[in-house]
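From the methods appendix. Each design record in this collection lists the discretized structure first, followed by the designed amino acid sequence. Records were kept in a plain field format so they could be parsed without special tools. The example shown here is representative of the layout used throughout.

RECORD:
C-ALPHA CELLS (421 positions):
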C-alpha cells in the first residue's frame, strides 16, 4: 500500500487546476444505463472510484472506452447482465446508483447491499422504499437487493431527510417511469443538479433540481449525449484550506465559487482572504491572523460533511477554542485520534469536537481511515514541523486526482512511497 511522506512548513504558492467532481461523475456514469445510444462524458477525474464504477458498468455488459484522460465513452446497447456483485459494491457504495436505472430500463436488478463503511451505517432504506412506492417488488436475499417491476409508475415520494444518493436513484428511475414523479424533501446538492442536467440532455423532463421539490415527467426513451462534469467543490474547499493552513497564496482555476458559498463564508470568518477573479478563478491568501469558528455540518447549501475533517485540521492551528459538530453521519471523527498524534488538542463530546488551537502541528506517523479524514491528515502534515508519514493513502486515491503531484507543483514537499504496508 502506498504512503505519503510529507515535510511540512512550506507555504503553498502558485496556480492549481480543479478537477471534475467525483460525486457528480458517479451517478452520471450510472445514468448512461438509461440511454439508447452512446454517451460521451468529459472532465471526468482519473480516480479509483471512477474505475470501480466503470468496472460495475462493464460487468453489466456495457462497452466502455477512455480515449483520453478525462473522457469516457459508454455504449450501453450490449447491457446483458443486471447484477452488481458484492466484490465491487463493497469497495464503493455509490454502486447502488445502478439500481434505479436498471429497474427503470430493464425492469430487474440484483445489486449487492453495500454493507457498513468507515463513516457509519449509511443505510439505503429510503432508496428502496421510494422504488417500492413506484411499483418495484424488492426483496433482500443473501446480501443482495433483488428488484423486479412490471413497469415503474410515477408517484409522490417524500424523503424525511434529504438523501443525495436516494434523490439521484429516484430521479434516474422516474425519468423512464410512466407518468409524473414528485420528490419532496429532495437533496439540493450541486451533484444532484448536474445529474438532472445530464438526464435533461438525454431528453428527460425534470423541473426543480436544486430545490426541495423535484418533478419528473417520465418518458419512453432517452438518447445518448455529450456532457461535461462540474468541478469538484470538495477539492476546491480542500485547496482553500491547504492555502490557509500553510499560510500560502494560491489561485484555484476552474472552481465554481457558487458551489462552495458556505465553505468560503466560514473561511472568511476565520480570516482567510478569498477573492473572485474576473476569469472565474479564486485567489486565496492565508497570511492573516486566524480566528476560531463553530461549524455544523448540514445538507447543502449548508456546510458540507465532506469538508468537516479538513476544517477541523485548520481549527487545530487557529488560536482559541473552536467547535465542530457532525450532523450527517455517525462515526465520522476517525481523524480525531490521528490529529491528536500530530499534536492537535481535540476532545470528542458526542457529535461535537472541541478544538483548542496550538501553534503548529508536529510531524508523526499516522494512518488514513477514510477519504476526507485522509485529506485532513495531509493538511495537518503540510502545516507540521518535521516529517509526517501517512499510511493507507489509497483512501485519498479514491477521491482526489493527483493530489500529491498538485501539491508538489505548489511547492509542497510530498513524496509518494509505493508498496509496503
Ligand atoms: C453522498 C455523497 C457523500 C456525502 C453525502 C452527504 C456520493 C457518492 N456520496 O452520500 O460524499 O458525504 O452525500 O452530502 O455522492 N440515509 C438513510 N437512509 C437512506 C439514505 C440515507 O438513513 O436510504 C441517511 C444517511 O445515513 C445520512 C443521511 O441520510 O445520515 C444523508 O445520506 P445521503 O445523502 O444518502 O448520503 P450518500 O448519498 O450516501
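DESIGN:
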Amino acid at each position: 500500500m502506498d504512503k505519503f511522506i510529507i515535510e511540512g512548513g512550506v507555504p503553498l504558492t502558485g496556480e492549481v487546476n480543479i478537477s471534475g467532481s467525483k460525486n457528480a461523475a458517479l451517478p452520471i456514469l450510472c445514468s448512461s444505463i438509461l440511454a439508447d445510444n452512446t454517451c460521451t462524458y468529459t472532465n471526468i477525474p482519473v480516480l479509483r472510484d471512477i474505475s470501480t464504477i466503470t468496472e460495475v458498468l462493464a460487468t453489466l455488459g456495457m462497452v466502455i472506452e477512455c480515449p483520453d484522460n478525462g473522457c469516457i465513452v459508454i455504449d450501453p446497447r450490449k447491457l446483458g447482465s443486471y447484477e452488481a456483485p458484492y466484490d465491487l459494491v463493497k469497495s464503493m457504495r455509490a454502486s447502488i446508483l445502478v439500481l434505479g436505472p436498471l429497474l427503470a430500463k430493464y425492469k430487474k436488478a440484483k445489486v449487492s447491499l453495500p454493507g457498513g463503511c468507515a463513516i457509519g451505517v449509511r443505510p439505503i432504506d429510503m432508496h428502496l422504499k421510494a422504488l417500492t412506492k413506484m411499483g418495484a417488488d424488492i426483496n433482500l436475499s443473501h446480501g443482495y437487493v433483488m428488484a423486479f417491476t412490471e413497469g415503474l409508475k410515477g408517484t409522490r415520494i417524500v424523503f424525511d431527510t434529504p438523501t443525495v444518493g436516494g434523490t439521484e436513484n429516484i430521479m434516474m428511475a422516474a425519468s423512464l417511469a410512466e407518468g409524473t414523479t414528485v420528490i419532496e424533501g429532495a437533496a439540493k446538492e450541486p451533484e444532484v443538479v448536474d445529474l438532472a442536467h445530464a438526464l435533461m440532455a438525454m431528453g428527460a423532463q425534470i423541473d426543480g433540481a436544486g430545490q426541495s421539490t423535484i418533478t419528473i415527467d417520465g418518458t419512453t426513451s432517452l438518447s445518448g449525449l455529450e456532457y461535461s462534469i462540474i468541478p469538484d467543490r470538495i477539492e476546491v474547499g480542500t485547496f482553500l484550506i491547504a492555502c490557509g493552513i500553510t499560510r500560502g497564496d494560491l489561485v484555484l482555476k476552474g472552481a465554481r465559487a457558487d458551489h462552495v458559498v458556505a465553505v468560503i463564508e466560514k473561511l472568511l470568518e476565520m480570516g482567510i482572504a478569498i477573492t473572485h477573479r474576473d476569469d472565474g478563478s479564486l485567489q486565496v491568501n492565508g497570511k492573516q491572523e486566524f480566528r476560531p469558528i463553530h461549524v455544523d455540518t448540514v445538507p447543502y447549501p449548508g456546510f458540507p460533511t465532506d469538508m468537516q475533517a479538513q476544517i477541523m485540521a485548520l481549527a487545530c492551528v487557529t488560536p482559541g477554542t473552536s467547535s465542530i459538530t457532525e450532523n450527517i453521519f455517525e462515526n465520522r471523527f476517525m481523524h480525531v485520534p490521528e490529529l491528536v498524534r500530530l499534536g492537535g488538542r481535540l476532545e470528542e463530546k458526542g457529535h461535537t469536537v472541541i478544538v483548542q488551537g496550538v501553534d503548529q502541528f508536529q510531524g508523526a506517523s499516522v494512518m488514513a481511515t477514510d477519504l476526507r479524514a485522509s485529506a485532513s491528515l495531509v493538511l495537518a502534515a503540510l502545516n507540521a514541523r518535521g516529517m509526517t508519514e501517512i499510511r493507507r493513502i489509497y483512501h485519498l486515491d479514491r477521491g482526489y486526482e493527483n493530489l500529491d503531484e498538485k501539491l508538489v507543483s505548489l511547492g509542497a514537499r510530498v513524496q509518494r512511497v509505493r508498496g509496503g504496508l
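APPENDIX NOTE: The chain is about 30% helix and 25% strand.
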